[in-house]
Amino acid sequence: MAKTETEQKSNIDNRDLSIQENAPMSHSEILREQISEALDIYDKTNSSIFLSSFTAGLEIGFSFLLICVMSDFLMGSITQEAIWKINALVYPVGFILVVLGKSILFTEQTSLLFLPVLNKKSNLSDLFRLWSLVLVGNILGGMLISIIAVWIGPRLHIFSAETIEKISIHVIHDNLVVIWVSAILAGWLMGLLSWLLTSSDSTISRILIIYIITAVIGAMGLHHSIVGNIEVFSGLITSNEITLRDYLLFQTIAILGNALGGVVFVALLKYKAFAFDGKH
């Protein structure tokens, strides 16, 4: 039976709608979505933000646990340099858990939360309040998973205190300028991660994006303040080679570098490039 003109028109409209839904987002659409997502976080209560951040600090610790397991397993079989590169394969696991679980991670949210300030929908005092809550939650969560890892690893015979010490020393072996520039690059990549995730709507593609970006950070040995917090704090509580001064210096430089990378190279440049009409 032949279709009526109305049915044919309806089918054409449905096909057009499907094509529009599957079409990639434009730069301005991504920017609007990013600002909208950031404003949703601004609307959350302080306790909600802190708990979500604390959870992220815990979850990201699974990257550290797997790094310890792989390092201990491979130690003595291949060179240390090869071990650090292979660890990049498991480094993304904690990030996948955090990002897909919608927990709030400082380095991912740094550039995102700065966008409403650029857009004049929020102010610097609210931005610093949010950054502080997220950062404190991430760090405290990381400290707790560090304590758990230090206790459970040797008891399960999956890694030793010596392995933790080697990882911690490896993280802070560079001078502060190198850590600073490295942290800027890591913050830049994490800001791009947030941007790319907004343009993707399938779970598989999101996992792939998270894996690629964070594996690059791991393979290059870039310094990430939240994973680094767990790595260095674990060394602090297990080894005499890591001092409180080492930990505090590393954290300060890594946090500032990550924040600068996300704000300048992603939030500021993306906003200036794509918000030229001022209608977001």
From TrEMBL:
Query: Pfam families under this entry?
Result: Form_Nir_trans
GO MF: formate transmembrane transporter activity
Location in or out of the cell: Membrane
Organism of provenance? Aquimarina spongiae
User: What InterPro entries does this protein's entry cite?
Assistant: Aquaporin-like, For/NO2_transpt
Q: Which UniProt keywords are listed?
A: Membrane, Transmembrane, Transmembrane helix
Signal peptide region? none
Protein name as it appears in the record: Formate/nitrite transporter FocA, FNT family
Q: What is the membrane topology here?
A: Multi-pass membrane protein
Q: Name one GO cellular component term.
A: plasma membrane
Highest taxon of the source? Bacteria
Record-annotated membrane-spanning stretches: 49-75, 130-152, 177-196, 208-227, 247-269
The family database entries (PANTHER family) matched by this protein are listed as: FORMATE TRANSPORTER-RELATED, INNER MEMBRANE PROTEIN YFDC
